[in-house]
Amino acid sequence: xxxxxxxxxxxxxxxxxxxxxxxxxxxxxxxxxxxxxxxxxxxxxxxxxxxxxxxxxxxxxxxxxxxxxxxxxxxxxxxxxxxxxxxxxxxxxxxxxxxxxxxxxxxxxxxxxxxxxxxxxxxxxxxxxxxxxxxxxxxxxxxxxxxxxxxxxxxxxxxxxxxxxxxxxxxxxxxxxxxxxxxxxxxxxxxxxxxxxxxxxxxxxxxxxxxxxxxxxxxxxxxxxxxxxxxxxxxxxxxxxxxxxxxxxxxxxxxxxxxxxxxxxxxxxxxxxxxxxxxxxxxxxxxxxxxxxxxxxxxxxxxxxxxxxxxxxxxxxxxxxxxxxxxxxxxxxxxxxxxxxxxxxxxxxxxxxxxxxxxxxxxxxxxxxxxxxxxxxxxxxxxxxxxxxxxxxxxxxxxxxxxxxxxxxxxxxxxxxxxxxxxxxxxxxxx
Length: 431
Hints:
The chain is of the alpha/beta class. Helices cover 37% and strands 16% of the residues.
């Protein structure tokens, strides 16, 4: 018998108040196909957020659902205490793609857990609890990752197992360096990093950075900034952790990993990933050179990391992504979508900036004529887009309100145009 109490009321009764829901009337998504999803009322939406950049290839991708069903029919779980063929095969592929020499891979169940593991590795390897992080950053919701998150809207406590120093440079168009050209901006951020290191007591363990900040509103530094940082970090023996939870797997179009836009001094020491690789299944992980990965001297296993079912999904999803050149599609279709969004923004005073790369676009909204964030406008656009049949995301850091656009990487040109048209009407509705 169906429970007569509305699902939203049941949600509020048994789940935490801080568990956010989109929309004034939250929707229940019941199924999806390709780039579309349907709600419990039968409404169809073009999905431009993909479960927070997680449905990377397509909803209900036959290759992935078949792999999951076949593996589940054999064995669902074993843990890392037993040899696991799908886990080893996916680790081999990820290690080869990572660009990190002599790479080792450890699988987790989320990006939060992946970053938590990276922090454990770095602090153990360096024998230091000091971490460098970027302002406006987001790295997860565990006790250690919220403590290095530079976005106060997502960091509920000042308590921390780590001593964190925040560095300038991840936000190109705001802050004290915004008026500089790219070269001067990079030089100023490098000088700030050196100044921070001069004030830190002892040697920092690592710098953790998102090549493009996700929750922070899809903002990024000039290409090459983290490579320039790398020169300073290497001088001090400090590790570089590239948080690729949202930028990995070709989403930026130009590169397979976000760090490759900053590669002039080599790959990161540690790379973290999650979200898109599972296409909705719970997969996260860490890649590190063997010397760093093997520094732990205590026993460790993972009960659910590397599950045979999720690994089968990851293998099928990655194969589809590579076989169909979805990175190239993200570059081509994403480039067209960004051009279209910028053309729309030119006629909407509330849009301060359209930024991004590939199929990772941010539309920043402000009170017209100012740099003041306008969260009410962002919420209104989100609602209007939904009414028009388009699902978007939200984000932003200090005094910013950003619409996040990140559809599956198989998005077609026609769908990009359709979504841009709906978003244009939603933006015009707030004028």
